[in-house]
Amino acid sequence: MREIGIDEIIELLKNANKENIYDLDNYVHPADILEAIMDREDIHELLQQLPKELIAEIIEEADEEDQIKILQHFTNKEKSEILNSMSSDDVTDLIDELDEDKKSHLIGLLDKETREDVERLLEYESDTAGGIMTTEFLAIYDDKTIESVLKYIRSETDAETTYYLYVVDREHHLKGVVTLRDIVSNEMTTRIKEIMNPNVISVHYNQDQEEVSHVFEKYGFMLMPVVDDDNHMIGVITVDDILEIMVEETTEDIHRMAGINKEEKVDGSITDSIKSRLPWLIVNLITALLASAVIDLFSDTISKIVALSAVMTIISGMGGNAGTQTLTIIIRGLSLGEIDKENATRILRKEVVVGLATGGVIGVFVAAIAMFYEFNPLFGLVAAVAMILNMLCAAIAGYAVPIVLEKIKVDPALASGVFVTTFTDVLGFFFFLGLATIAMPYL
Q1: What is the pLDDT of residues 389-409, one digit of tens each?
Q2: How many CA atoms lie within 13 A of 427 on its CB side?
């Protein structure tokens, strides 16, 4: 099948006859249509001739902020038709981004069934399994035959997916799971209880979305049921939702490690960027004063041996790089649940050994650089020892800081970087300038 470009998509939309609509619906992915129309002023004119179900699919491909922008181009009647064609979890995510007045307005546009689903989903925290699940799934009873189940599948067009069918009892307790392959490869008279797998893995509605993504990653599922405290099945989570969460969590961690709000976007406003970045830069300024104070303590030493000022920045900078390496590994390990009580001490020992080993190697190079400035072996030795000590402390700080922050319920990705950098700067200057002060008679 040939690829249809943006210009051709726009032409199909502008001349939206029956044939063109068929081509758009069958040969163009909604994400490609979204890419073609986004940021255009004539969005309503381009989309108004399309079936509302297709418009809903296009809007579902956008993030919540862009979904709101697109919907603003439609009348209330059109909004109602589009929202009722969208899946309940996507509508919930969209509505959850609005203030109370707009939220009430959009909820009022929903039909009774969709409204009940959305209001139920809004009760859950947005970053939990309940907040990301959809209530549109297929559940069957274990005493049904494959023939009756197939009839049921044909009649249910709103389900998120038919790859898996979950088996429940009359009180809706989760009992097992069957795949579509199980259904089509057995006789029509076979009872579901004979082919279902009772070992079904589920997640609790209150489980954090990041933990849920780990379960998906561990088992490689495409779909997972969500249950309440009494093991009643209340929804399902699909793998496409998990992929979005993984991107969201990764982006959030990257932003926070740089001291940036997770909401900041590359094409955001200047004001938003300043508000996002300035507070953490002020915190960095305060911590930088600590390093400056240490340098001031040894101002007499620096005034007598000018070469110290050139080498000390190398030692603090390399310590900061080493600390960031350890920090990145530890934060990722915490995020993936790879660090626990059983392996915490072993990981610390490993990082200490790595810090000493890398510090030793880098220390040799730093010693050579220091001797280039002063042509004094003792000056090189002082620089090498300071480098080893700072790399060791960088490894310990890179390990300990995120662990401690995790214990006191502070996001390690947000605050670890500035603390580790402060440690390596302050200690790097202190070790180097302190050792130089002690050895000054021989330098």
Answers
A1: 999 999 999 999 989 988 887
A2: 23
